[in-house]
Amino acid sequence: MRLLLGNQFPYSHGVVSGGIIFKSASLDLNFAKNKSLVDSKTGRNLVTFTRASSGTYVGSDGLIKTATTNLLLRSEEFDTTWSASDASVSTNQTIAPDGNTTADKLVCGTGTPLFQGITQSTTAIASAARFSVYVKAAELDQIELRSFSPTDWAVFELSTQQVLSQSGSPDATITDAGNGWHRCSIASSSSGATSFRISLASGGSRTFTPISGAGVYLWGAQLEQSDTVGEYVPTTSTINSAPRFDHDPTTGESLGLLVEESRTNLLLKSENFVTWSGFRKSVTSDQALSPAGLLNADLAAAIESNSSGAAISNQFTPSTTTYTFSVFAKANTTSALLLRPQNTGTFPEAAEAYFNLSTGQNGGVSDDGLVFTNSSQQIKDCGNGWYKCSVTFTLASASFTANVRIYIIDSVGSLSVTSGASFYVWGAQLEEGSFPTSYIPTEGSTVTRAADVASITGSNFSSWYRQDEGTLFGDAQTPFAVTGFPIIADGRVSTTDIVQIGFVTEARSVGYVKAGNVDQAVIYNPGLTGNRRRRIAFGMKADNFSVSTNGSALVSDASGNMPTNIADLYIGSRTGTNFLNGTIRRLTYWPQRLSDPILQKVTR
Predict the structure, then answer these.
(1) What is the pLDDT of residues 239-261, one digit of tens each?
(2) CATH number at residue 433
(3) Position 282 in a domain
């Protein structure tokens, strides 16, 4: 097949958007289709991803899920955070399951101790947890995995793929991972401070006569809050969580990679409304399937009729900043809901947002205009009758006691309630920020979701990037009004040399080039009001820059130089700032400045 680029490209819009032009790209991260970080061009994962906490997302079934989080540190560096007993660790001895020479070897010592192995101490999870590691036979063919407080252990034989012996309740598993590798795991019933150990074994036991220099290969240790083995998530000096590939909760459409800034849920017991205070209300636990698909949604009901409604409430310590209060709700005998953050001591210092849980519509928002200001509201259909309702407000002062209330009422716009009126609630969240982000569950303390940080660096970057010209394409969207210049992609060296595409406002997107600490091209593409999904193509070459968004007419700049030392690409943020707080369906780069007609066609 003949490869056609630039002005030679004759194909119609349908073929362009269908993918032929994408075949000439040097980088193609098709997050929505692949639901992974793998580059479609090379079949390799070029992206380094970290989030030092757990995080939730919407799965293809429309349910809220929690991404796998590895709670162990230095998951591929067994000579560091892991402490050895008699055994030793030789680093980077063979090819790991990911194709890199990063697998370590656990080697026998010369003594005869109770065990020869390595241990990592951590704080275990009170609920289900699973400890796993990739193992490959060398001179030895057996290994023991053990957790403590209480003790659960199992001995695995790799050649026969069997569990030879076990004690406690390990629910041991061993699976073939290819090329001689096996992934071994045990369940842990431990809670509180504990340790996890990997020991050499022989004859079905960790106690054996050691053979000097003999051992097994190790890679990819993981401790996760699950009763099954999840996808492996590498860690270094902090815990790490898997990237999140989000979906539309009502259609199941894949939206791509979710990238969000760090946020903290300031409310305690976010799913346990029985513990919340309030008035003229009753709360019954576990009465309906929640947006997570579990029977853990509570029923909130009025227990008497009153012109001032019934409410459940939770207190917080206010600051002079902007907050967003949200909750998932589902109609039962009433479909009217009021969210009211307020000063508990001074009426009417509050913000009020009404919602209709039957029609899925906002019912109006207001505030006192002095202490609670700039209030807005949002309602989002989450499927199966559930809606995420939120109110955003700014506090001009904070010298008072505050709470957030969820009112049970009969109709939108009125506080009146009839005894027995009820709806279902789940997943309350109060966070600092001007829009709601993905749900952060809490129990007895506040919980912070760390930022999603995705980047391509080193040879993974230089293998596809061209310094003197190129075309950068991004297909991304935000679920809220655009604020704060959210970034889709940011290639740079320090702050002096940059190539970048992103959102600017509800009405504009941007292509930006900086070289030698001087702006070279700053191209705003207008006329996009209300469209929060942007397909942006930015053609870049000295004295020849153009941007098209969503098939709009191009905006061009015929002067400016290209930076010649770009070394990194940040995805969905700008070195830890200007987070997209949305999803990226696709991110593509061509090592040519595509023609203006193609820039326009590829974004339709």
Answers:
(1) 999 999 999 999 999 999 999 99
(2) 2.60.120.260
(3) yes
